Every structure is written in C-alpha cells, then in structure tokens.
Amino acid sequence: MIELMNLAKIFWCLCIFLWMSSEGIAQNKPVTSELLEAEVSQFRRTGTYAEVEATCHRFASTYPEAVRCVSIGRTAEGRSIMALVVSRSGALTPDQAQRMKVPVVLAIGGTHAGEMDGKDAGLIVVRDLLKKVSSDDPLKHQVFLFVPVFNVDGHERPSPFNRPNQNGPSLQGERVTAQRINLNRDWILGQSSEMNAMLQFIADWDPLLTLDLHVTDGVRFRHDVSLSMSPMFGVDDALREVSDQFSVDMMKRLSASGHRPLDFTPVLLDFENPRAGIMRDADAPRFSHVYAVLRNRMGILVEDHAWDPYAQRVKTSHDVLTAALDLIAKQGKQLLDVALQADEKSETMYSQAVALDWHNMLEAGIDIPTGQANLLGYEYTTHSDAPVVGGRHITYHLQKPTVWQVPVYGDIQPVNEAIVSFPQAGYIIPAGWASVVLPYLQKHHITYQVLTKNMQGVDVQELHVDPESISFESRTFQGRLRTQISGEWVTAQVNLTSGSLYVPIRQARALLVAHLLEPVSPDSLSRWGLFNTAYEITDHISNHRQLQIAQWMYAQDRRIRERYGETLHKKLSALRQEYQIRMDRDERFHEDPEQRMDFWISQIPYHDPTFNKYPVMRTDHLQSSAWLSRAESGH
C-alpha cells in the first residue's frame, strides 16, 4: 500500500514538473521577461509587488485590444492596488459590459498576503489565455477582472515566519493590512481604504461571479482545495438553484483534472481527533462569498491546502480559475439573466419574511449527523499527555495515508430570532444618526433619500431595546466592540428633522439594506457596535431625589402637578393601580427595586426619550416626494 502511495506521489510530482516545464521554468530553460519569479525559482519563491505592476503593464501594452491595466485605489500606505481587465468580447469598460450584457468574473488574490497562490496562478492564467487564441477562447464570452494582490501593504512585509502552517514559498506577506484590518472580515464595514476601493470597483463592474483565492491550514488531510458557496443567504430560489449547480459543475471539473476537492471547508468537531466529525459553517456577510450573495450574485471562497507544496497549490488555483472561466463562457449569459431577474424580484420583497442569519443545527443543540464522509487523511495519534508539553494534542503519521470515515453535520437552518418581515416602505434614520449610517449606504451604493424639511407625526415602528438583552463581546474584533441587542418593535408617531434619511426597501439591494439596518443580522451596523451610545446612561437623578419623586407620585402629591403639569398628575391614579397589579403578579418586578423605581421615574420629563431606542425605524408608508430630495445611490 505504501509503495503504491509513493508511486502516486512521484507521479503527481512529475505532473507538476511537466506543467512547470511547459511554462518555461525548467532549470535549463533560459529565463525570459514573461516568466514570473515563482516560475524562475521553480516555485520556491514568489515575486515582489513590482513584478505584479510590471506584468500588468506589459500585458496591457502587448495586448491593447484585450487588456487594460488599472489601479482601483490606494492602500493605507499609498500603494496602488492594480487590476487586470481582460476580455476579447469587445467590452473593456463597465459601461460596455453592461450594455452588451457580457458576464463579468472577478478573481481576488492576496486578500491575506501570505497566501499568494492566487496571485501567481492568476497571472499565469491570464498570460496563457492571451497567448493561446482559439475558437473556444473563454475571453470571447466574458470579462475577467483579476486583482493579483488585494492586501498590497501586507504583501510588501514579507517574512519566512508569517505563515508557520504553510509549505512555501520561502517568504510570505502578512495576513492583515498596515492598519491590522483583516480584509476578508471587512466586506460590510469597509473600514480599510483597500476595501473601499474594492467596493467601488465591484459597484462599477457588478461581477456575476467573485472568486476569493485563499490558503487554509489546520487539519492535515490530502484534499487539495475546498470551494465554499453560501447561496442560502440569498432570497431568490432560481439563483440558489443555479449557484448550487455551478458548485457541482466546478467539483466535477476539478475532480476530472486529478484534484481532490471538497465543496465546503470542514470544521473539525475535535481538533485532536478528526474522526469525531466535521461541521459545515454558515459563515456571515463579512466574507466575500456571502457578500456577493447579498448582491444577488455568486461568490466562491477558494481555499488551497496549506501543507501542499507551493507549486502544487499554484497549479490548484490555476485549475480552479480555468474551470470557472470555462463554465462562465458556456453558462454565463443564462446565469447573468437569472441574477438580473433576482434584482428585479428584490424590488418586490417588501413585507416578506426573510432569514438574515443562519447557523448549523449542531450549534442549536441538534446532535444529529446529516451523513457520512470519507475524508482522505492520515493515521494519527491523539495524545492525552503529549511529549514535552503535556496535555491533549495530535500527531499525524504522514507516511500512513488512510481514509477517515466521519459523521458530517451539515444542516444549515435560519436562526429563528433572525427571521424578520421587511417593512412595506423602508427604513428611516433620524438626522442625528444620519452621519453614522450614510457612509455605509454610499460605499455599498444603496439608494436613499434625504428629508429636506421638518416633518411632524410620521408613522413608524421603533425598537425599544430591552436593557437586559444588551451584551458586549469580551474583546474587540476588527477594532470594534461587537454588540447584541433585542427588544420589541412598537408603532409610534415621531417628528423628524431636516437631514433625516429614508432608505426604500424596494430596490435591487434590498437584502443588503436589511443586513445593514436590521439589528439581528450578524454583520449589521448595530452588531458591529456603531449604535452603542444609544444604550449608555449619560445622566442621572440622585438616589434620594428619585425616592422623593416616586413617593410623591405614589401619594398623588400636588407637587407633581406643580412641577410636571396636570397631564401627568391625572395619570397617577391609573399608574398606582398598574403598579399594584405588577407588584402582586410579577415576582421579578416585586423583588427588583431598580425596576420598581424605573416604573415611576420613566414617567417624568427627566426620563431620556431616546435612551435604549434603536436609531433606525421601520416604516410601512411610502414617503412623500415633496419632502425628500432625489434618490441617491453611492457617491
């Protein structure tokens, strides 16, 4: 068995060597300007960013009819983020692609700058496609956008120690940006200059398919790539179906090419015992492949396996890109039609119940596997008292390949609390909070309108936040203190001042609107802590003064009328009856002096009317164009 495995390994290495040789990287082949540093070094090294820039410009000058080399923006340290626009369809600008209805594919390398497989693979793919014109040239049927390195600043801080769980190249960039932002957690907030540039690039080109090229680590198995899609976050059944089929087609293509792909990145239930089972994660909109779904498009998170040699990983990314481009060349027109129809359907989503968050049912306590999987792994030892360090650890025996038969927990279902009914009209943001919300509407190119004069008595639903529900994570994430809230939506009439925002739900980006503004979404502005001041106590009445006021109110003292007016004084008898009922029937209320005090103090004008009120309101009534400026969308 071992001899057969060794022969298979030798055969695979020979295949990689032949592939590299066909690209001119055999040691005895002279180096030309077309070769990348990765090829020249036989994939021991990867090139600097200067090589990316030079290659980008060389392609554009050599093939002016098919290539544009553009900068999509700058990094925090001022470097240009270069992109290749490649097509033989006749469309080399966003306007041309949209007018001609040419499908657009975006591939992103170097989101994590230590994971450079996508950079070198993508440049080789572009070079090969440009050199080998044929009747079945996929570039005739699509526009291929390629960003070789997204995190350029991280790329230019190479070290042999940046990726300890990765097998080459000799130097790797850093995972985070110069501001220590993880770009593949930044798709909703867009805190980084890099992500703001990418969001504008995506808004301009509107890619049908986005491939985010990464390298995973962790478990030592023999699968060389995983492709994760999250169509469950979408709301259009037709788009879900074609996305699922696209995933199946990609898996077939890669398997036929000799790869060992998985259709999701498995999460081990027990990192020291892989046979205990694997779980499929639901992911969240902060990731590129989920964000694409919120725009009614398709996204794939590509994860090469970190323990494969760099040459093999570049070949894997090369084959993933080639398979995707070939499929889009054949299916792209039909897929684009489905996506555009999903945009139209999104404009009629008002009043629909939609799930904004999903989870694996194992996380909800449902310990029932959905199936079994045969994972290609290795024999291993689980230590109860590991050598040197002690404790529970694992050692993989890499000379003993085997198959793990593992239970799979793959049941992804909506989080019940995150199923919301969209408002019939949209959302209103009061003027005082407009400056907080507006940048996110603009960077995601969401249509909104601005109140041009004060408005009285607007019918809304507002969320009264339960103070007991407010919880903060124990440490910051992406520099933010994430927050969770819940409460009760109640009908109300509010007065709005000029500068308030109205965000209609009847737009193509309706799902993205809800994910930003509904607090139950896992990556809402609320969840990221942007509204935390709404839940902070900023002033107080001293204890002895509170007691005095509560006693006056309970006794229906005339001093309440003198200080707070006749209206409140007339309510005191009914309030006392309500108070007594709660004392008799609500044990929690009876035993909690703070609740009892708040019952009375909340009735007086000293009570802050905006405290614990969520600063985004729903409305079921279309707003009058007489008091709204023209619709805006983006910058």
Spell out the blueprint of helices and strands.
Blueprint: H1 2-22, H2 37-40, H3 49-62, E1 67-74, E2 80-86, H4 94-100, E3 104-108, H5 117-131, E4 143-147, H6 152-155, H7 193-205, E5 209-216, E6 225-228, H8 237-256, E7 261-262, E8 267-268, E9 278-279, H9 288-294, E10 298-305, H10 310-346, E11 353-355, E12 358-360, E13 371-383, E14 393-409, E15 412-414, E16 419-421, E17 426-429, H11 431-443, E18 447-450, E19 455-465, E20 471-472, E21 483-484, E22 487-496, E23 501-504, H12 510-517, H13 543-554, H14 558-564, H15 566-585, H16 587-590, H17 593-601, E24 617-619, E25 632-633
Parallel strand pairs: 3-4, 3-5, 5-10, 6-7, 9-14
Antiparallel strand pairs: 1-2, 2-4, 6-10, 8-9, 11-16, 12-15, 13-14, 17-23, 17-24, 18-23, 18-25, 19-22, 20-21
Helix pairs in contact: 5-10, 8-10, 14-15
Describe the structure.
This protein has 635 residues and is α+β, with helices and mostly antiparallel strands. It has four domains: 70-109 and 117-346, Zn peptidases (Aminopeptidase); 371-414, no CATH class; 419-537 and 615-633, no CATH class; 543-601, no CATH class. It contains 17 helices and 25 strands. Strands 1-2-4-3-5-10-6-7 form an eight-stranded mixed β-sheet, with helices on both faces. A five-stranded antiparallel β-sheet has the order 24-17-23-18-25. Helix 8 packs antiparallel against helix 10 and helix 14 (558-564) crosses helix 15. The longest helix has 37 residues, at 310-346. It is globular and about 90 Å long. The N and C termini lie far apart (62 Å).
